[in-house]
Structures are given as structure tokens and as C-alpha cells.
Write a structure and sequence with these properties.
It is built from five helices and two strands. With 88 residues, the chain is mainly α. It has one domain: Arc Repressor Mutant, subunit A. The protein has a two-stranded antiparallel ribbon. α1 crosses α5. It is globular, with a radius of gyration of 12 Å.
Length: 88
């Protein structure tokens, strides 16, 4: 389940909790527990994108899902450790 969450974020560009829960077919409380585990293990980070859009966006795997300019909800980003975990 944890890898599936990371894959949704990476491959399907789903970055918000509500969207992830819907795609996974799980209750929000269960998803929040799983997201906490991923955050604690360093596989996810949340918050506003800290990238320079002119430099990073063209190569960012989250570019299509990023709402940097109109952030209305908490977004999740997969870290490099998370990408390695998905591939393992």
C-alpha cells in the first residue's frame, strides 16, 4: 500500500490527500496514517514547492500535479529516498 501511494504521486501525478484517498479507495484516516509513515521514513515531504520554477519545473516529475502558484491544499512530494523505495 505504501509503494502504491508513492506510485500514484509519481506516475499519476496525484498530489493531494483527497485525490489519493479516492484513487486508493481508503478512508481519509487510514490514508493519513500511511502518509505519516511515509513522511517519518523520509519517503515523502509535504509543503510548498521550494524549487525555482524556471529551472526545475521542466525536469520535475511532479510538474503536472504541482499547484505552486495556486496552493489551496497540502501537497505531497516524493523524495529521492521514496523513489528508490518504489523501485526496490
Amino acid at each position: 500500500m505504501l509503494k502504491r501511494i508513492l506510485r500514484l504521486i509519481l506516475e499519476e501525478k496525484v498530489a493531494h490527500k483527497k485525490e489519493i484517498a479516492k484513487k486508493m479507495g481508503v478512508q481519509m484516516s487510514a490514508l493519513e496514517d500511511m502518509l505519516d509513515i511515509l513522511l517519518e521514513n523520509g519517503y515523502l515531504r509535504f509543503g510548498k514547492c521550494e524549487c525555482n520554477p524556471e529551472v526545475s519545473c521542466p525536469t520535475c516529475p511532479m510538474a503536472e500535479a504541482c499547484h505552486q502558484k495556486k496552493m489551496v491544499a497540502q501537497e505531497y512530494y516524493v523524495t529521492e529516498s521514496g523513489e528508490r523505495f518504489v523501485k526496490s
